[in-house]
Amino acid sequence: MPDQLKICAVIPTFNNAGTLAGVLDGVSKHISEIIVVNDGSTDGTSEILAGSELPLTLVEFPKNKGKGAALKAGLRKARELGFDYALTIDSDGQHFPSDIPVFLAAIAEHPGALVLGSRNLQAENMPSGSTFANRFSNFWFTVQTAKKLPDTQTGFRAYPLRKLPCLGLLTRRYEAELELLVFSAWRGVKLVPVPVRVIYPEDRVTSFRPGADFTRISILNTILCVLAIIYGYPRMLINKMLCRTCVV
To answer: pTM of the entire structure?
Structure first.
């Protein structure tokens, strides 16, 4: 890892008191700087954060605003603190913090890339709804960017903060991660998938609402398809032409 790169972890959380402490402990073994965004939790999250012995940077919302808003606030705070990269991981325990070295190795090999955790969508424990939503999202991502990725829905990512698009997102909920991915592709940010493990315990607490969230994802995809025609593809074409000019 280049010595000059400053890397932090950004963890949005909402009512995940049962898994949050374990996630924080696991992440701290690999990344010492952790930003937690408490998205208006009403369980014991605030008490867990207040009692943590880890040197956390806290961003707290008095009321729930949605994962997209929490993610944006965390990334913005990471920028303000001068970090180059922000690794994001869900607080519900589905990700393995022990996979973080895979991200760090990818950053070292591909500086400036957006690194995405890629789950095995064929795994037996993968919920059928998540598998369908991911395939649906993957298809439209390819339509919007002419790029293929194995997993466009994962929240386990490493964002190059200096290359991210404006954080004035169109949406404040789960689909914000898709929006960030599409705009990053349009801006010419290299996208690097890495394999990660995932677990879905029966007692996992999730705020994902299949009907409402899938509807919003569909609406966002419609908007992004229109933007792809008037902005995305022209931007990618210009980027390609400029790269060719630089090479010559």
So the answer is: 0.89
